[in-house]
Design goal:
Length: 191
Protein backbone atom coordinates (compact mmCIF):
# COMPACT_ATOMS: atom_id res chain seq x y z
CA UNK A 1 0.00 0.00 0.00
CA UNK A 2 0.90 3.62 -0.30
CA UNK A 3 0.25 6.94 1.36
CA UNK A 4 0.98 9.72 -1.15
CA UNK A 5 1.66 13.09 0.48
CA UNK A 6 1.14 14.87 -2.84
CA UNK A 7 -1.29 14.30 -5.65
CA UNK A 8 -0.02 12.03 -8.39
CA UNK A 9 -1.53 9.83 -11.08
CA UNK A 10 -0.64 6.54 -12.71
CA UNK A 11 0.14 6.37 -16.42
CA UNK A 12 -3.56 5.52 -16.88
CA UNK A 13 -4.60 8.82 -15.26
CA UNK A 14 -5.85 7.34 -11.99
CA UNK A 15 -4.92 8.88 -8.64
CA UNK A 16 -2.02 6.81 -7.29
CA UNK A 17 -3.37 5.99 -3.82
CA UNK A 18 -6.67 4.66 -5.19
CA UNK A 19 -4.90 2.83 -8.02
CA UNK A 20 -2.38 1.05 -5.79
CA UNK A 21 -4.45 0.49 -2.64
CA UNK A 22 -7.72 -0.53 -4.26
CA UNK A 23 -7.39 -1.22 -7.98
CA UNK A 24 -4.21 -3.22 -7.39
CA UNK A 25 -6.13 -5.60 -5.10
CA UNK A 26 -9.04 -5.75 -7.51
CA UNK A 27 -6.83 -6.45 -10.52
CA UNK A 28 -4.71 -9.11 -8.80
CA UNK A 29 -7.77 -10.91 -7.45
CA UNK A 30 -9.47 -10.73 -10.85
CA UNK A 31 -6.47 -12.20 -12.64
CA UNK A 32 -6.07 -15.03 -10.11
CA UNK A 33 -9.77 -15.80 -9.60
CA UNK A 34 -9.96 -18.81 -11.91
CA UNK A 35 -7.04 -20.40 -10.03
CA UNK A 36 -8.93 -20.35 -6.72
CA UNK A 37 -11.10 -23.21 -5.60
CA UNK A 38 -13.15 -24.30 -2.64
CA UNK A 39 -11.23 -23.69 0.58
CA UNK A 40 -9.09 -20.89 -0.88
CA UNK A 41 -8.72 -17.66 1.08
CA UNK A 42 -8.52 -14.07 -0.14
CA UNK A 43 -7.09 -11.69 2.47
CA UNK A 44 -7.12 -7.92 1.92
CA UNK A 45 -5.19 -5.49 4.09
CA UNK A 46 -7.08 -2.28 4.78
CA UNK A 47 -6.98 0.18 7.66
CA UNK A 48 -9.12 1.55 10.43
CA UNK A 49 -8.86 4.76 8.39
CA UNK A 50 -11.80 3.36 6.39
CA UNK A 51 -14.00 4.86 9.12
CA UNK A 52 -13.17 8.33 7.75
CA UNK A 53 -13.45 7.30 4.11
CA UNK A 54 -15.97 8.24 1.46
CA UNK A 55 -15.77 6.64 -1.98
CA UNK A 56 -16.26 9.37 -4.57
CA UNK A 57 -17.51 7.21 -7.44
CA UNK A 58 -17.90 10.19 -9.76
CA UNK A 59 -14.40 11.46 -8.98
CA UNK A 60 -12.10 8.86 -7.38
CA UNK A 61 -9.14 11.06 -8.34
CA UNK A 62 -10.47 13.76 -5.96
CA UNK A 63 -8.80 16.49 -8.05
CA UNK A 64 -8.75 19.84 -6.24
CA UNK A 65 -10.26 18.17 -3.15
CA UNK A 66 -7.18 15.91 -2.80
CA UNK A 67 -5.68 15.44 0.62
CA UNK A 68 -3.38 12.52 1.36
CA UNK A 69 -5.49 11.24 4.27
CA UNK A 70 -8.75 11.72 2.33
CA UNK A 71 -7.30 9.68 -0.56
CA UNK A 72 -5.93 7.02 1.80
CA UNK A 73 -9.23 6.68 3.73
CA UNK A 74 -11.15 6.45 0.44
CA UNK A 75 -8.87 3.64 -0.79
CA UNK A 76 -9.17 1.74 2.48
CA UNK A 77 -12.97 2.00 2.51
CA UNK A 78 -12.82 0.70 -1.08
CA UNK A 79 -10.84 -2.31 0.22
CA UNK A 80 -13.67 -3.19 2.61
CA UNK A 81 -16.43 -2.61 0.05
CA UNK A 82 -14.58 -4.80 -2.47
CA UNK A 83 -13.98 -7.52 0.12
CA UNK A 84 -17.62 -7.69 1.19
CA UNK A 85 -18.91 -7.62 -2.40
CA UNK A 86 -16.48 -10.38 -3.39
CA UNK A 87 -17.40 -12.44 -0.30
CA UNK A 88 -21.07 -12.26 -1.24
CA UNK A 89 -20.33 -13.25 -4.82
CA UNK A 90 -17.92 -16.04 -3.79
CA UNK A 91 -20.16 -17.74 -1.21
CA UNK A 92 -21.26 -20.49 -3.62
CA UNK A 93 -17.65 -21.24 -4.52
CA UNK A 94 -16.78 -21.65 -0.81
CA UNK A 95 -13.87 -19.20 -1.01
CA UNK A 96 -13.26 -17.21 2.17
CA UNK A 97 -12.79 -13.47 1.59
CA UNK A 98 -11.84 -11.27 4.55
CA UNK A 99 -10.22 -7.93 5.28
CA UNK A 100 -8.16 -6.59 8.18
CA UNK A 101 -6.54 -3.63 9.84
CA UNK A 102 -2.96 -4.61 10.81
CA UNK A 103 -2.56 -1.79 13.32
CA UNK A 104 -0.27 1.20 13.03
CA UNK A 105 2.87 -0.58 11.92
CA UNK A 106 6.42 0.80 11.84
CA UNK A 107 7.14 0.24 8.14
CA UNK A 108 8.68 2.30 5.36
CA UNK A 109 5.25 3.56 4.26
CA UNK A 110 5.77 6.59 6.53
CA UNK A 111 9.09 8.26 5.58
CA UNK A 112 7.80 9.75 2.32
CA UNK A 113 5.77 12.36 4.17
CA UNK A 114 6.58 16.01 4.70
CA UNK A 115 8.68 17.16 7.66
CA UNK A 116 5.77 17.41 10.13
CA UNK A 117 4.70 13.82 9.50
CA UNK A 118 8.28 12.54 9.63
CA UNK A 119 8.65 14.18 13.04
CA UNK A 120 5.32 12.84 14.26
CA UNK A 121 6.14 9.32 13.08
CA UNK A 122 9.56 9.48 14.76
CA UNK A 123 7.84 10.54 17.99
CA UNK A 124 5.20 7.79 17.78
CA UNK A 125 7.43 4.98 16.50
CA UNK A 126 7.99 3.44 19.95
CA UNK A 127 4.22 2.84 20.19
CA UNK A 128 3.84 1.44 16.68
CA UNK A 129 3.60 -2.30 16.10
CA UNK A 130 6.49 -4.19 14.62
CA UNK A 131 5.99 -5.63 11.13
CA UNK A 132 5.88 -9.10 12.74
CA UNK A 133 3.03 -8.05 15.05
CA UNK A 134 1.23 -6.30 12.21
CA UNK A 135 1.39 -9.50 10.16
CA UNK A 136 -0.27 -11.70 12.79
CA UNK A 137 -3.83 -11.06 11.60
CA UNK A 138 -2.77 -11.57 7.98
CA UNK A 139 -1.28 -14.96 8.86
CA UNK A 140 -4.34 -15.90 10.93
CA UNK A 141 -6.72 -15.19 8.05
CA UNK A 142 -4.48 -16.83 5.46
CA UNK A 143 -3.73 -20.05 7.28
CA UNK A 144 -5.31 -20.65 10.70
CA UNK A 145 -7.78 -23.54 11.00
CA UNK A 146 -9.88 -21.62 13.53
CA UNK A 147 -11.05 -19.15 10.86
CA UNK A 148 -11.66 -21.75 8.16
CA UNK A 149 -14.99 -20.97 6.53
CA UNK A 150 -15.18 -17.45 7.99
CA UNK A 151 -15.94 -15.04 5.17
CA UNK A 152 -17.07 -11.46 4.72
CA UNK A 153 -15.53 -10.32 8.00
CA UNK A 154 -13.35 -7.43 9.11
CA UNK A 155 -10.58 -8.15 11.64
CA UNK A 156 -8.43 -6.10 13.98
CA UNK A 157 -5.91 -7.65 16.41
CA UNK A 158 -6.88 -11.18 15.29
CA UNK A 159 -10.55 -10.60 16.21
CA UNK A 160 -13.58 -10.06 14.00
CA UNK A 161 -15.02 -6.59 14.67
CA UNK A 162 -17.74 -4.57 13.02
CA UNK A 163 -16.48 -2.05 10.44
CA UNK A 164 -17.94 1.40 9.79
CA UNK A 165 -21.56 1.07 8.60
CA UNK A 166 -20.79 2.55 5.16
CA UNK A 167 -18.41 -0.37 4.54
CA UNK A 168 -21.43 -2.68 4.61
CA UNK A 169 -23.38 -0.73 1.95
CA UNK A 170 -24.15 -3.38 -0.72
CA UNK A 171 -25.30 -0.83 -3.32
CA UNK A 172 -22.06 1.13 -2.96
CA UNK A 173 -20.12 -2.14 -3.13
CA UNK A 174 -21.83 -3.11 -6.41
CA UNK A 175 -21.25 0.33 -7.92
CA UNK A 176 -17.57 0.25 -6.89
CA UNK A 177 -17.30 -3.26 -8.42
CA UNK A 178 -18.54 -1.95 -11.78
CA UNK A 179 -16.33 1.14 -11.62
CA UNK A 180 -13.30 -1.02 -10.80
CA UNK A 181 -13.94 -3.10 -13.92
CA UNK A 182 -14.11 0.03 -16.05
CA UNK A 183 -10.96 1.56 -14.54
CA UNK A 184 -8.91 -1.64 -14.92
CA UNK A 185 -10.25 -2.37 -18.40
CA UNK A 186 -11.28 -5.86 -17.35
CA UNK A 187 -14.49 -7.40 -18.59
CA UNK A 188 -17.04 -8.11 -15.86
CA UNK A 189 -16.18 -11.48 -14.33
CA UNK A 190 -18.50 -13.65 -12.40
CA UNK A 191 -17.71 -15.80 -9.45
Amino acid sequence: GVVCPRYSETAEGIETTFAVNHLGYFLLTSLLWDCLGSGSRVVNVASRAHIHGRVHLENVNLGAAYGYYKAYAQSKLANLLFTFELAARAAQKKIAVNVLHPGVVATNIWPRHHAFMKGLVALLKPWMSSPETGAQTVVLLADAPEVEGVTGAYFEHCQAVEPAPRARNPELGRRLWSLSHRLTGLPEWSV
